[in-house]
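This entry is set out below.
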Amino acid sequence: MTLPQQFSSGLVQAPFVASSGLLLNTWGVISSPVEAIVGSRALSWKLYQEPASDLTVLAFQVEPDFHLEPGLVSFSELRGKNFRRFEFLCNKKILDFKVNASAVSLLSENIERLDELKSEINDSPRLIVTGHGLGGPIASLFTLLLLDSPGLGKKHPLCITFGSPLVGDKSFQEAISRSSTWSSCFLHVVSYKDPQPKKLKPGTDDYMPFGTFLFCSDTNSTCFENPLSVLELLVVSIGHQNQGFQPIDYGNIVENLYRKAICKDFTPRMQDLNTSNSLRASICLQLWAALGLFDVQQQQQQNIDNNTLATKMETLDISQLQHNIDVNTLVTKMQKLEEKFIFQKKIKFDPSRKLNVMKRDMAQLEWYKKDSKNRDIGYYDSYKRSVSTSDQDAVKFQKNLTNYWKDMVEEAEMKPQREGAAFRIRWLYAGTNYRRMVEPLDIAEYYANGGKDYITNQRSKHYKVLEEWVKEGRRRDSGDSNRTNRTNVELILTFDSCFWAHVEEALLLCKELKSVQSSLKEKEEATRKLVDFEEYVYGLLMKFEVSPEIFLTESSYMTWWNQYKAIKGISYNSALAGFMSNPRHYVQYTEGTYVFPEVQ
């Protein structure tokens, strides 16, 4: 069996980005004589509308004498100071994160004017937010504020920074990366000679990159998306950056990259790379192209074979190194980081991709439900007794669906608040059907094995979360909460997915009432709970929220009712007893024609 080759596509992405002209246009605004709008202290910005185009560029500038301190501030601390602008990044898993204190302070000092700026540019069809050096962190933070704009819709700004220091910690990076689109809104252009991106100590536990990084030398470039790979390159380049630092001319770099990207001979140079020993070779080529780490002038001849070049890159001898970097150690580490990143992307939970498979499993359980009904037992009790082959098959479908929805709930919990809310709305119907269909099977298995008090002791968190989604939906549409469900009553799934757990507890209470070992106090408590259960069942029936399967002869509910009726005696009178006294009522309920007496 031949394993699929892995390949790092950074050398393909980089010329695509450079050839678009966006880097040229963006840098042009940064370096243009367009008059800047001065904010408080060291911050200013330029707003440029490209003629005869729908492109708007917003460029942030920070005075060179502004000192960007390395310290971080937690969002919980900012919240305590009544600065809550990044609260939307929090989710059920990430409750707090840290960002650079100096950058946030500069942002907060200008927040009123920046809010006005948000309103001014909110309708821009295409918007680029940019910043060079210390302006980069401000551009990144402002872009995040734009991403939280309610009217943004499908329009997402693109943030392009040049030589920007890092902004926040690992939790900050994870919060941004949990959104399906946000991380793709950030492109950071970094020259390997530029010390500014390493200013805030990458490689410590404090700072973590996010977005796509375009690493470049004077004439070549490559892209990396894996934050750990980016971090490794930043750390490595710290050790060989020139001591006599001079400002990096990003204007010259992006112009060279643009010219090279549109040259006819560029693509053939890399076109056969995917036929080489892919991942390690491509990483070697990336490090050569972007960071100038290798002395490979002889390989740059026009007539060289790409596979030969890739092979030479893999077997590069340490004597060929510049900057005294151990290439074998670096490439091996980068290869492992990229392999792990590729694997994580491959196994990343994709709800839509697996949904059709889950629909098939739900359809199988629907068939199982109908088959059980035809056997006059109902699928809950059939699963609980587990005596037929169809019961065993149902176990497989139940496990598949449960694993899927556990992952689904975790995915929703990890998303930032606004996107998480939209996610829950989108999957509410499917999640509700799953919970109502599958949780009764969990309950059946639990009580078949002698369990007690399922809701307190056994209920899975993901069922609770799915139920909370329904409650959120009802709060959004409160006028729909009291409707009855008379249409297709025969086909409904019981609304309360814990209904059968209540039935099982009622059966245990009847057993307690009949036991000679129960004390008077225990029997009184059991009687009270059974009255509560009666009211609970009758309330569900009145709203047509219980499947008619409960009236099947072999169901646990009918077993409970027969035991309870025997305990209470034929003279017992209650609302539920009145309904249960006539089997014709069950038929009318199934047809949706039964009229419940008004409760006095």
Observations:
- The chain has three domains: 10-249, 349-481, 483-491+512-600.
- The domain at 10-249 is CATH 3.40.50.1820 (Rossmann fold).
- The longest strand covers residues 55-62.
- The first helix runs from residue 10 to 19.
